[in-house]
Every structure is written in structure tokens, then in C-alpha cells.
């Protein structure tokens, strides 16, 4: 294998790359987003400068991804902190857990998504949309939301705003000597977004303490509400907002 062949690989290992080149199209991608009030001091501790918090409201979201080009089918859960970067409204992805190796590896290596392996499940039980997250054999989070109670609502601006808002990650990759090779805030904006359905309604959220899956470090004080979205969209490559090593 010559130099051009090596550089042309999309990912490791060379015999069977973990993921192909992007961008990556998703079909029937489903969210349940539960927003809640938490401790403002804890938000500041979890938010790297120069990002700035905007309120005491954060969110835990479950994602069911049945058809992701290059990644396959998988599920995920994430903790999101609304913030600003130089006045621009953003969502900082603080923690994320997935159950499939291609998106886990690609998410960390390309965009800096803070992905670890965990089992997130989003499904309907009777009249309730239910999300569960298990990590290291322990149930860490359970979210529930009423199922499509506002089926005739015409204004989907809140859901479109959430999907359009810039996502920010903290991308940390060490060099071979253990020192930082990359330390960046990375921005990602979804493209070709088609909202196929969106509903809002009452929700509840329970978080349990776990040392290696610390969603509980942003404790639930009061649940604001829930949001369910079904969408097609494209995940493109991102851009560097801030380079800590520059």
C-alpha cells in the first residue's frame, strides 16, 4: 500500500474502514428531547470557555436512528447545554452515549462528539413515548412523554429552531506522547433538514448517579416539557470555532 492509498483511506483499520467518507444522510431520525431546569453553577462547570450559558435550562435527548448511511442502525442519548459563542446561540453537546461502533468512532474522530458506549432505547409503550439509558449494567436515565397529544398543531418553529441551531463539541485528541494534538471547539450544522413530524407535551425525567455516566451532575429541579421530532437530515463535516492550542 503506497502513500496515496494510505491517505485515501476514510478511517482505520486499512483492511475494513470503520466508516466511509461523508457527508452522512439520515432517514426517519427520531428525537425525544426533555428540557429541564438545573443548577446554574453546575452548568458553568460543565461548559468550557469561551462558551457562555444562557439560562438554567438544559436537556436530555434520546435518538432513534434506524437508517444512517455508512453507520447503520443505532440509538443514542445525549445531554445538551444551550449556550452562546460570541453572541451566537448554540447547543453544547456535553455527554453522548451510543450502541454502535461506526458512529461512536466516527463521531469522536471527526466531529469530537463526546461519545461513549451505552445502551439507549427510545420506544412507545401504550400511550407513552419512553426513553431509557443503561451504562455499565445500570439504568442511568428514564424519560417519558405523552404520545402525540398536539397532533393538529401547525407551528413547528421550536422544533425547526432546535435542528437548525449550531451544535458545538469539545474535540480532544492526544498526540503519541500524550500531550494534546487537537483541542478545539467544533461547530456542526445539519443540512437538508426535513421535519416529517413534531409534537410537544408534558414529560418527566429521572436521572441516577453514575461515576462514568454522570448525567446526574446536572440534576433535575423542574421539567419544562418534552419534544418529539421525526426528521430526515444530512450530517456534514464541521468547522473549528476555537483552537485552544493556537
What's the CATH H-level homologous superfamily? Acetoacetate decarboxylase-like
CATH topology category name: Acetoacetate decarboxylase-like
Element order, helices and strands? HEHEEEEHEEEEHEEEEEE
Second rung of CATH, namely the architecture: Beta Barrel
Total number of helices:
4
**What is the radius of gyration computed over CA atoms, rounded to a whole number of angstroms?**
18 Å
Mean pLDDT: 96
Q: How far apart are the termini?
A: 34 Å
Fraction in helix: 10-25%
Would you count the extended β strands for me?
15
The CATH class name reads Mainly Beta
Major sheet, described briefly?
Answer: 11 strands, mixed
Explain this structure.
The strands form 2 sheets. Strands 1, 2, 3, 4, 5, 6, 10, 11, 12, 14 and 15 form an 11-stranded mixed sheet that branches. A 4-stranded antiparallel sheet has the order 7-8-9-13, with no helix packed on it. The chain contains 4 helices and 15 strands. The chain has one domain (22-243): Acetoacetate decarboxylase-like. It has helices at residues 3-7, 40-46, 101-111, 157-164, and strands at 24-37, 52-53, 57-68, 72-85, 88-98, 115-117, 119-125, 128-135, 138-146, 166-174, 180-188, 191-201, 203-207, 222-235, 239-243. The mean pLDDT is 96. It is mostly beta strands and 246 residues long. The longest helix is centred in the middle third of the chain and has 11 residues, at 101-111. β7 and β8 (128-135) form a beta hairpin. The protein is globular and about 60 Å long.
